[in-house]
Fold this sequence. Notes:
By secondary structure, the protein is of the alpha+beta class. 38% of the residues lie in helices and 21% in strands. It has 14 helices and twelve strands. The protein has helices spanning 14-30, 34-48, 56-82, 102-107, 118-122, 139-144, 189-199, 203-213, 216-231, 248-257, 276-279, 292-296, 298-303, 356-359, and strands at residues 89-93, 111-113, 133-137, 157-161, 167-172, 240-245, 267-271, 305-311, 316-321, 329-340, 343-354, 365-370. The strands form three sheets. It has a seven-stranded mixed β-sheet with strand order 6-7-11-10-9-8-12. Mean pLDDT is 84; it is low at 1-5.
Amino acid sequence: MHGKVFAIAGATNTDLVDDIQKSLVDALKNGTTITQFRKDWDATVQKYGWSYRGSRGWRTSVIFNTNMRSAHMAGRWKQLVANQAQRPYLQYRTAGDSHVRPQHRMWNGLIYLLSDPFWQTHYPPNGWGCRCTVRAYGEAEMKDKDLSESAPFEIKTREVISADGEIKDRVPIGIDPGWDHNVGQSWIGPEQALGQKLAALPRQLQGPLVDKTISPAFQKVLSDNFKGFKSGIKQPVGQAQIVGFMDSGMINALADKLPEIDLQSTAVSVFDNKTNHLAGNHKASSLQAWPDEWVNSLPEHFRNYRAVLWDKLKKTLIVVPQGSFNKTLPKITMRLNEPTKFGTSASVISLGSASAANLADPNAYDLLLGTLDP
């Protein structure tokens, strides 16, 4: 999952991955070359006795160039967003040589507003070794150069099929598997895809794979990213961030007690324009309002719950975290299978609190998992 959890195929030792990641960060900060990275690489590989596949030159080149390119383009996106009012248009550009992929060459020169859905999947890099980039234009420059916005882009997809004929993924034509997302946005795409893939697994595999995939290290990354996402909200613009994934307990409880629900994703997202508490519009005096420190720790509270309920009237899932405030129980209200421009996920629609007696009302709620007792 590019840009989210740093990982290297075949490197399962977390200390080894951490050392390699530090070398890449140093290279990014100090502008060092791949030559220095290879020296660090050799020292790290020897230190941990890692026997990797492929030649040293090939593997170090792929890791170094991929991460440097992704990091630079992510930073570039941040600059583009900050200057969007002056230069709202982006033009797709290739390296212009014989090594450019035919499909990428067809996109060369396309111009769309920065807010156009095209950039959610086609903002470069769009594959291993992709050297494509973008250029920003303002209204005056567009007119001076006689440029205009391109016709709406129709995204056509292809299925990624394994050697044994299994459909493993579906990506836009011309984009490598795993690269159909914008490295500079909230990077919600890969996580949305993960949530949908986990939900599509056979029942007997869901629980073990979900719990194994959403490791403590991954959960920490989700928490850190959410804090950055929340602090960056100036005005709701439809961005989103994944705050967690349903664990095996939630998935099994839904399947056993609400079999009529076809769960399409285990991912849980927060949208800046749907959660008043994140947008800062809630009334601070309300007894139901979450304290700031609780909101900041939403991913941890979602993960560490005491009970999960089903709201019979509103058809929403209620997660009751551990702990309490204002002598009430906190609650996270989610709507399942929420379709969005990013994909399908469960969406947090409100953060509030209620009394234990209220939540224990069998006419209003079904207790799916856990207990409301302290």
